[in-house]
Predict the structure.
Amino acid sequence: MTHSFPPINETNDYDPNSLTVDKARELIHRYLTPVDGYEEIAIYDALHRVTAEHILAPHHVPNHNNSAMDGYAFNSRELTTPTIELTVIGSVYAGHPFTQSIAPGEAVRIMTGAVIPDGVDTVIMQEQVAREGDTIRFENKQIKVGQNIRLAGEDIQQGAVAVKKGQVITPAHMGLVASLGIATIKVHRQLKVAFFSTGDELCSVGEALKEGQIYDSNRYSLKGLLTSLHVECKDFGVVRDNPNALKQVFHEASLWADVIVSSGGVSVGDADFIKALMAELGQVVFWKIAMKPGRPLAYGKINQSHFFGLPGNPVAVMVTFYQFVQHALQVLAGQETTTELPQVRYRLLEPIKKTPGRMEFQRGIVLKDSNGEWCVKATGNQSSGVLSSMTQANCFIVLPQECGSLNKGDFVEVELFNGIL
Ligand code: AMP
Ligand code: MG
């Protein structure tokens, strides 16, 4: 078996019970190289795809000087008297260039987007003009030379990088690329992500619960998260706590996937086989992280696929996905500008309990207090099994490892959900 991971000894320096969140992120980042494979696709269908090369502007945008207003175009040489009076010799519309020459004392009526004709350099908006028949009159002091003209290339210069390599295509990029007349772009192929749940207690939705069983909710949360990230995902179902069954799924998933994500079975219980299987089939990079929720978290490789073994608790699945997997998938998919989650500071509306030693991602709600000031409070029960805390929250309250309990009114860092949750 060959695999591209560097030796893992370097991670042995860390106490496996106290690998910090930042260190874990850094370690994962070292192993990420964007997947090979590209496609040429229509920009019309390119939403959320990742550019594989810079897109250069073949011409200026806009490609000609044009009017920003409905009004009158004239030459600024006319601005010699306090009141200006000019004769309107015609109209110029968007898409219909004006070819007549414009003599001293003359102006043209011009519509928004129409090309500025030769011989004029300034546009006055129609609301500032008194018109009688073919004569317009307006005050000189209102005018700045060159006003109300959008200059060729003021958006993008010919030859400039209009969209960078490694950029996720947003609706704005679609419009921008279309404004360049470019129909197709080169993108990275979509990332393939396999996911499954592990646990003897799990019952799939649609089946009747037997005694002692719970419904498998993690696969649904993961399906949502992966769909939000626009990867190609494949559901490998529920796998029992049985090393042979797990081995079989790992094998099948690694034949297809760039990344495998599982939930459960990564603790140190008797039925937690994943770590041993990783060591057998690939590589274990780290195991325990000083965070809450989410202490047991496996990262490594299964054959050639990256593997994230997320904890089983439903909130821990979502938090660890958000804090580690999201970024990794973005890098693997070719993104060079990944979403750095902005953190904002808010005052606590209520006290928070915390023991120093682990970084916590409490589920929070940013809201206005009775004085109309923005503040934040935790959602209540922060147990890692309480998934309703995730549906109520609109942010994580990020509490550093060394921080202890906090009082009402203390400032905390808040990470607003970025749309994938
Ligand atoms: P584990 O990490 O496998 O020990 O699981 C930790 C906790 O999460 C246990 O209470 C499991 O029953 C629960 N759990 C594990 N997998 C799932 C799942 N797919 N859906 C809902 N709860 C789960
Ligand atoms: Mg389990």
